[in-house]
Specification:
This is Carbamoyltransferase. The protein is of the alpha/beta class. It has three domains: about 140 residues, Nucleotidyltransferase, domain 5 (2-Layer Sandwich), CATH 3.30.420.40; about 160 residues, Nucleotidyltransferase, domain 5 (2-Layer Sandwich), CATH 3.30.420.40; about 200 residues, Carbamoyltransferase, C-terminal domain (DHBP synthase), CATH 3.90.870. It has an eight-stranded mixed sheet, with helices on both faces. Strands 6, 7, 8, 9, 12 and 13 form a six-stranded mixed sheet that branches. Strand 1 and strand 2 form a beta hairpin. Helix 4 packs parallel to helix 7, helix 4 runs antiparallel to helix 8 and helix 7 packs antiparallel against helix 8. The protein starts with a strand and ends with a strand.
């Protein structure tokens, strides 16, 4: 049985194909259009390139598909080609399905939190999903409670304020302190990175702008306006650029602190209601990896799963999986192996050679006999490496197949990559990837985090060893390298460990600022040539810049 899932909202569009419950392929529209989060594509959105991609990867056509499923909050232009075949499901239900059906749990509690979801009309006004609680098991997903916030309509759907939304509060603060994408949306990831540089100056004040009790988060439109007004006033009162930067950092600290408090309280309430030992998370708020780790530390849940595509792109996974388990009525049983995020297509040697040939006058190539040993030596010598291997990852985190890798031992490496390669703010941290069997030597948790969605502390005696991936507060957004998911990445880490005694690498996404992660060999070569990357590894080929020898 084949099911095509289509996901997104007004951004982060994605397609996914499953066969008999197994995810065959998934790709985000941004990777193909090369427009970040695929926001503002207009009529081009109806091309739905990601659907063609996943069908082609499986070697099938749309006539070979049994069901097409989409969430009802996705821009309908994205589904136009399949409009006569689409089964519509709720936005939060698709999020919930995306995380439970990719988890290792037979039964679990599920929490979905984002900015906004499916809408309903009540008494002449529009309300949208903001927080949804579920229980899940072999018979599917059941709602425990769903919170909806009143919507204030604007001319642009992306600007519609939703009441009672944790995600909206975080994004509103992000926008107010100046963190915007090129398309005008908020950039909450920047806020999370800045928060450790702040102080508690505004923590008490921000707490006046919402109410939290008995599994409910409430924030009115007037409170949202008052919060934005406070930020604008404090920024205006700051007399110097340095003082304004301190205000921004302090508001980032405050909204991160309150988000953690809110999420912890909601999760504790869900545990009281369900008694479950395992928890699944999805929705944009679940990308707050700092809060995720606090849940592991401070709530009764014993295990936590966060789907790697926790944002709106993950609703394509959830739509397809709910189609199989919910609509088609198949019983759920967890897979014995971890869910693989590597769901893009494989590019063969001929495609790699063609990408190199197109820029042959600007590239030098070599095929070393020992690829991992060769690259490990370059990394240990200070090279910044574009690493392009196998199938691309789903979701916003590079997990070792479309990554930029570097030596974490060099303290200056963080500033060098931010300035010369990623062209982004200097405070932005980088993540470490570590061999699973050596994880506890460097980090304060033994729990594997293969999707880079938890932030434990770096052990105090190791912070000077890996300073390039240790954030200012001593934490790190860690990725655990598991051989069953990415044996090549593990082999590279072992080769680096043999040279340096450190089984850790700096890992960041292979892209320039405000660009999607590279997908094709051509994308990788283009990014390599326009940034100050030292090496590019395409499959088994190592490339340097310079005239062809």
């Amino acid at each position: 049985m084949r099911i095509l899932g289509l996901g997104g909202s007004h951004h982060d569009f994605c397609a996914c194909l499953i066969e008999d419950g197994r995810v065959v392929s998934a790709i985000e529209e941004e990777r193909l259009t090369r427009k970040k989060i695929a926001f503002g594509l207009g009529p081009r959105l109806q091309r739905c390139l990601s659907a063609d991609y996943v069908l082609s990867e499986a070697g099938v056509g749309i006539d070979d598909v049994d069901l097409v499923v989409a969430n009802d909050f996705v821009n309908p232009v994205f589904t136009l080609r399949f409009r006569d075949r689409v089964d519509w499901i709720g936005h939060h239900l698709s999020h919930a399905a995306s995380t439970f059906y990719t988890s290792p749990f037979e039964r679990a509690a599920v929490l979905v939190m984002d900015g906004r979801g499916s809408t309903v009309a009540r008494n002449g006004e529009l309300y949208g999903e903001t927080i949804s609680f579920y229980t899940a098991g072999p018979d599917g997903l059941q709602v425990v409670r769903g919170l909806h916030g009143r919507v204030t309509l604007t001319d642009r759907r992306s600007e519609d304020p939703y009441e009672d939304s944790v995600g909206w509060m975080y994004e509103a603060v992000s926008k107010a302190i100046g963190f915007l994408t090129s398309g005008g949306m908020g950039a909450p990831g920047k806020t999370m990175g800045l928060a450790p540089y702040g102080t508690p100056r505004y923590v008490q004040a921000l707490g006046e702008f919402y109410v939290l009790r008995d599994g409910e988060f409430r924030q009115s439109t007037s409170q949202q306006i008052a919060l934005r007004t406070l930020i604008e006033r404090e920024l205006a009162r700051a007399g110097t650029p340095a003082a304004r930067d301190e205000v921004r950092a302090d508001f980032a600290y405050a909204v991160q602190e309150h988000t953690e408090r809110i999420v912890i309280a909601l999760v504790r309430w869900l545990h009281e209601k369900t008694g479950a030992r395992d928890l699944c998370l999805a929705g944009g708020v679940a990308l707050n990896s700092v809060a995720n780790y606090k849940l592991l530390e401070q709530t009764p849940f014993e295990r936590i799963h966060v789907v790697p595509a926790a944002g709106d792109q993950g609703t394509a996974l959830g739509a397809a999986l709910h189609g199989y388990y919910g609509l088609a009525g198949n019983s759920w049983k967890p897979a014995p192996e971890p869910f693989s995020p590597y769901l893009g297509r494989t590019y063969g040697a001929a495609e790699i050679d063609a990408a190199i040939e197109a820029e042959q006058d600007r590239l030098q190539t070599v095929r070393p006999d020992d690829l991992h040993g060769h690259v490990a030596k370059e990394l240990a010598s200070g090279a910044i490496v574009g690493w392009f291997q196998g199938r691309s990852e789903i979701g916003p985190r590079a997990l070792g197949n479309r990554s930029i890798l570097a030596d974490p031992r060099a303290a200056e490496m963080k500033d060098r990559i931010n300035a010369k390669v990623k062209h982004r703010e200097a405070f932005r941290p980088f993540a470490p990837v570590v061999l699973h069997e050596r994880q506890e030597e460097f980090f304060t948790t033994a729990v594997p985090t293969p999707y880079m969605l938890m932030v434990p502390d770096v052990r105090e005696d190791r912070r000077d060893v890996i300073p390039a991936v240790t954030h200012v507060d001593g934490s790190a957004r860690m990725q655990t390298a598991l051989p069953e998911l990415n044996p090549g990445l593990c082999e590279l880490l072992r080769a680096f460990d043999r040279i340096t005694g450190v089984p850790v690498l700096l890992n960041t996404s292979f892209n320039d600022n405000e660009e999607p992660i590279v997908e094709t060999p051509q994308d990788a070569v283009r990014c390599f040539l326009k940034t100050e990357l030292d090496l590019l590894v395409l499959g088994d080929v190592v490339l340097r810049k310079g005239p062809k020898a």
